[in-house]
Amino acid sequence: MTIYNFSAGPATLPKPVLEQAQNELRNYQGSGMSVLEMSHRSPEFDKIIKDAEKTLRELMDIPDNYKVMFLQGGASLQFTMVPLNLAQGKKAYYLVGGSWGKKAYTEALKLAKTIPFEPILLASSEDTVYDHIPTFDPATIDPEAAYVHLTTNNTIEGTAIYELPDTNGVPIVADMSSNILAARYNVEDFALIYAGAQKNIGPAGVTVVIVREDFLNDQPMLSSMLDYRIQAEAGSLYNTPPAYNIYISKLVFDWVKNEIGGVDKMAAIEREKSALLYDFIEQSDFYTSPVKFAKDRSVCNIPFVTPSKDLDAQFVKEADALGFKNIKGHRSVGGMRASLYNAFPRQGVLDLLEFMKKFEEEHK
Amino acid sequence: MTIYNFSAGPATLPKPVLEQAQNELRNYQGSGMSVLEMSHRSPEFDKIIKDAEKTLRELMDIPDNYKVMFLQGGASLQFTMVPLNLAQGKKAYYLVGGSWGKKAYTEALKLAKTIPFEPILLASSEDTVYDHIPTFDPATIDPEAAYVHLTTNNTIEGTAIYELPDTNGVPIVADMSSNILAARYNVEDFALIYAGAQKNIGPAGVTVVIVREDFLNDQPMLSSMLDYRIQAEAGSLYNTPPAYNIYISKLVFDWVKNEIGGVDKMAAIEREKSALLYDFIEQSDFYTSPVKFAKDRSVCNIPFVTPSKDLDAQFVKEADALGFKNIKGHRSVGGMRASLYNAFPRQGVLDLLEFMKKFEEEHK
């Protein structure tokens, strides 16, 4: 049975990446060592991490005045590191369009009990279970604020920001965890971008942080590990990095560049792939999308529901038995969620649509 | 050519572990998925992380009133998390027997500029380049202090603490990164043990933390990710864990248990293996150990020098060409360092001794 992994993350990796990883697991390019056991100071790993950065810079067109870091702790640790490094003594605005944006704001409030800065909720769509990207009046933003934080893709709710909002000149910090490399963004529009790897980059355990140099802190932070300047100046080698996770990420970057042809092509593939599902849901009287506006639709995470919770549960059960794994929606939204990240195969969407049609026929 | 990887970390992994990892890389136990792409909420990964914890508990004989966590950020992030969670409003003593212990103390000083607690240098052997484990008078320790921090094995300098010092009743916190599972310690003698995986556990990117429940913080910390109670109560799944790194660690725990027969047997193997090298160095007039006292010798990291720096450099160069990789000593100690962690093969020591004899003949 073919397995399609619809997991919201950790998520499907490209088949050629897994093949290469398997082939060289015990002996990386004739070194006689696995990358799993290789010194992070070895020439072999030095090349891996530098190539990873180089290819990511090419893919995202990252300007030279931005630093690229491969850190640990996931986006969740960035919820602390971002305000700690960027916001001290200032205001920091949070645009909350989903559960993870809310977590970022909540962590900022927690940090603000110890570190002097002022987290401000700019706008939120929590009242309607984040069924749309909230809007706001730019004039309400203090132009002296440190940043406006936003989430470019809401993994749980299936919404995304493709056109950045007017922030009254205040720099934007983005959690891009669930659509980095799946949509084209202009890095220069951001002061800082961060992304946990486990959706479109690689395995869980490494987090990409891209920061404009002039936003690096001048004062030491309370912990070297949480200090962007220390991490950036050490080239992500302040301490032992998650080397294997970086290696797999490098293979994924190579795949996007060489097999796909770059981010614009990847983004086009993602749009076409997700449109197959969105178009089907739209013409159906049985399935509906909880996302309010078509313009807010994520190409990566597509939630949908049947007419009842019982049918949702039955759908998930039958789908699972047929090899459509991890398609159950997050408990806050319910129903189903098809996460169609970059490496998710188009055939998997076609097969899902066949099953959805059959299920609709049987239960409408 | 056979490659022997003497790296101080990331370090050699057991061959059967790498074989199993390679075999199931693309399809974990018939799931149709790689562990690299598997949801951390899946039944498959739930079993992996629970089995990892279970086997580690067996190996180290961890009592039920201790929590076991698999975190990110390496020992370096623990340098912050330990005082943040355990020391607020109290004194915390640091026994500094090596470069990493000094880093732990330095990070504590950094944190103390923001968080109210008092880091105190209990004793240090820095003056003699950490060539021995420093001693102290227990009566100088305030019995109300939060903890005495020590490093059980000094990776760079090749010393270790096998008999815990009298700390005047104050709980001991240990960085066990470089000899966990290579020597027997009684977990009940510690309030908290932490260890980066990349020496005796698995690949870099996961850190084991073992903490007695009554040392968990009552008050929320400034960041959820840095909050032991939150991490412990979430069973290391507060956010997406470094799943693959935990999976490889589980395979290593299984290897120590099933192939070796437990920590006592592993420790005996480590003692015998390292004694081969120590005995040879001792009888030699050419090689010397920078470690002052035999009782302080690490079984995991064995530094040694020839009569001159030029010969040291030549040794490293010739050794490398013969497949003895990463044997160069840390710049602070110089010379050579053979890291003989658990997975390092005994034959590699015998082959190294042959080369050392030959090199001595040629240059004495």
TrEMBL record, chains A, B:
It is found in: Cytoplasm. The keyword Amino-acid biosynthesis applies. Belongs to the class-V pyridoxal-phosphate-dependent aminotransferase family. SerC subfamily. Pathway: Amino-acid biosynthesis; L-serine biosynthesis; L-serine from 3-phospho-D-glycerate: step 2/3. Its EC number is 2.6.1.52. Its main location: cytoplasm. Binds 1 pyridoxal phosphate per subunit. L-glutamate binds at residue 41. Pyridoxal 5'-phosphate binds at residues 75-76, 100, 155, 175, 198, 239-240. It is an enzyme of class 2 (transferase). HAMAP family: SerC_aminotrans_5. Catalyzes the reversible conversion of 3-phosphohydroxypyruvate to phosphoserine and of 3-hydroxy-2-oxo-4-phosphonooxybutanoate to phosphohydroxythreonine. GO terms for molecular function: O-phospho-L-serine:2-oxoglutarate aminotransferase activity. It catalyses: 4-(phosphooxy)-L-threonine + 2-oxoglutarate = (R)-3-hydroxy-2-oxo-4-phosphooxybutanoate + L-glutamate; O-phospho-L-serine + 2-oxoglutarate = 3-phosphooxypyruvate + L-glutamate. Residues 3-349 form the Aminotransferase class V domain. The keyword Transferase applies. It comes from Streptococcus dentapri. Its cofactor is pyridoxal 5'-phosphate. The modification N6-(pyridoxal phosphate)lysine is found at residue 199. Homodimer. This is Phosphoserine aminotransferase. Keywords: Amino-acid biosynthesis, Aminotransferase, Cytoplasm, Pyridoxal phosphate, Serine biosynthesis, Transferase.
